[in-house]
Amino acid sequence: METITNVHRDDEASKLGMWLFIFTEILLFGGLFIVYSIYRFNNAVAFHLAGEELNDTIGIINTVILLTSSMTVAMSLTAMQKGNIRLCLGMIAVTVLLGLVFLTNKYFEWGIKFEHGLYPGSAFLKELGHGDIMFFGLYFMMTGLHALHIIVGLTILVVVAVFIRKGRIRPDKYAFLENGGLYWHLVDLIWIFLFPLFYLIH
Amino acid sequence: MGPQTYNSFFTVHGIIMIFVIVIPGLPAVFGNFFLPIMIGARDVIFPKLNLLSWYLYVLGILTVLTSLFTFGGAPDTGWTFYAPYSFKTTTNMFPAVLGAFILGFSSILTGLNFITTIHRMRAPGMKFSNMPLFVWSIYGTGWIQLFATPIVGITLMMVIAERFLHIGFFDPALGGDPVLYQHLFWIYSHPAVYIMILPAMGVISEIIPTFARKGIFGYNAIVASTMAIAVVGYFVWAHHMFTSGMSTTAQFTFSLLTFLVAIPSAIKVFNWVATLYKGSIRIEVPLIWALGFMFLFMIGGFTGLFLGSVATDVHVHNTSFVVAHFHYIIFGGMGSAFMAAAHYWLPKMYGRMYNKFWATVGWATFFIGFNVLYFPMFILGYQGMPRRYYDYLGQFHNLNVVSTIGSWILATGLIITIVNLIRGARNGPKAGMNPWEGRTLEWTVPSPPPPENFDVIPDLTSTSTAH
């Protein structure tokens, strides 16, 4: 038998695979959450004070942006299921735009921290004491890793959009769009935990 | 050999053997080949993802190897990358750590692929309750790969961040805690031992019934113990750290859990022996390797209990006792099982049979050499010879010489075995479809199996036992 007849397609399986991958992503961040909780326990007062340094307003705006983008990506999937490809592409475009706005805010937020000398290994931070070093170390590591995931998520969504244009994602074949959306929800979900841990708990 | 060279040797030996050879060994070689056939599928469910994990694997190996030849010199921390030394040493740690991270990613994707394949691709009538035990072991392994590997991934990323950004997660000078690194590291790296040994147990559970020519004894018990090892094995990590500083309650708990995880392993051994009991045993090379596995694995397992109990562990911690225990489990156990699998499935993979006489000679030489090499290390460790030192006291000289001679015998055995396997695969006589009268699905297709394995997907709804 030399002929390869690969017509096997299983949307359930690709979704199962995506969910398993999301588990591993949550565990990846889980390692950092453990480290966060241990150092918060050890440096409760310093973490409390350092948290007040962060700009709540930018945090809230970014949270709203990500929540909205989760809604638009879900709408793009529903649009695809109902056969409205133009609306689907539009919603993906809005999602990507919101993601970029989030990153821009992040850029300015980090920039201000850097200006104030608050970055890992800075001389100013070293003078502040162990709790502050750990708080800002974790802040940059966790939001940085999250920003990396935003970039990956945006790349996936752009690929999804290209596939829709090429007809590889269609109203009868949209598992890739659904998985891309799942990944975007994961990115959103992690932020939902990062936001209160760094900005809100005072 | 100077101290620095010695440190590099045991470090690179550890990194390459653990992350490159032993963890992917059985699942990637035999799992990829036989998992689809054994459940009656044409391929794994995500072939492209499978190719990606292969590319990542190669990329990971190249990255690790880069650390040997580029600036700074080969890493010298031990394969455990213990902080704070791992971010203070001037040797070339970054490629080694990054390579381990990439290899971990490859391992996760393989596990994800296998789990989904087993859930979605089983042939009609192939239920979870009658799946071959090798498939079950790959299934349990896949879950450990998914649940444990991300933790080491993030830990290695933190080490990289420490090296370049000086964040201080594990640096006491900045308020970090090196013991926390050890916890995070072992949360992955103890379950990783079960990633290594579970597929080995799966291979043995296939070979023993084939050559005892009867059904496996206690199928359900073996399945349950596989999953029990996968679950309980996740909660025993801190027995690597009894001397690192932790509360007595933690020591007691982790010691107890370690003892508990020995029970499912013992259940498997009992079941294998019970399968052989009153079987009409056919002595063939794969069975000999499997019996060798059981012998070496039991020595490794029992000495593991010495290490799991707090009082004795404090005495033999970081001695060559640990080295001997680990190599009995991984080299004697997983290594023997790999050879058993190679001798069992080579006729299927290449359609040709190796020379059985030389295969037996190879096994006997390996078995003798192995024990001569590693058994003295138990005694040396018990007498207090520390591991990871390039020199030793005069009183340890004789047994170290014995050990060295053992390593030569072991190497000879391995060379005989591997040369014989390669020659068999190339020029051996035709093996036929089912040389061992095996009863699992891979023996129902031609040797070597055609691309896509089956012309027609087998239907097992009428047969009651597939295993």
Short description:
Chain A has helices spanning 11-42, 44-51, 56-81, 85-115, 123-128, 130-166, 175-200. Chain A is mainly alpha-helical.
Report on this structure.
By secondary structure, chain A is mostly helical. Helix content of chain A is 82%, strand content 0%. Chain A has a single domain (25-200), classed as Cytochrome c oxidase, subunit III, four-helix bundle (Four Helix Bundle (Hemerythrin (Met), subunit A), Up-down Bundle), CATH 1.20.120.80. Chain A has helices at residues 11-42, 44-51, 56-81, 85-115, 123-128, 130-166, 175-200. In chain A, helix 3 runs antiparallel to helix 4, helix 3 packs antiparallel against helix 7 and helix 4 runs antiparallel to helix 6. Chain A starts with 10 loop residues before the first helix and ends with a helix. In chain A, 36% of the residues are buried. Residues 1-5 of chain A have low confidence and may be disordered. Chain B is mainly α and 467 residues long. Chain B folds into two domains: 1-282, Cytochrome c oxidase-like, subunit I domain (Cytochrome C Oxidase, Chain A); 285-456, Cytochrome c oxidase-like, subunit I domain (Cytochrome C Oxidase, Chain A, Up-down Bundle), CATH 1.20.210.10. Chain B has helices spanning 3-38, 47-69, 85-88, 93-120, 133-165, 178-212, 219-232, 248-276, 285-308, 310-316, 320-350, 356-383, 397-427. Classes of the chains: A mainly alpha (202), B mainly alpha (467). Chain A binds chain B through residues 1-2, 4-6, 8, 10, 12-14, 16-17, 20-21, 23-25, 27-32, 34-35, 38-39, 42-43, 120-121, 126, 129-131, 133-134, 137, 140-141, 145, and chain B through 42, 45-46, 49, 108, 112-113, 115-116, 119-121, 146-147, 149-151, 153-155, 157-158, 161, 165-169, 174-177, 180, 184, 450-452, 455.
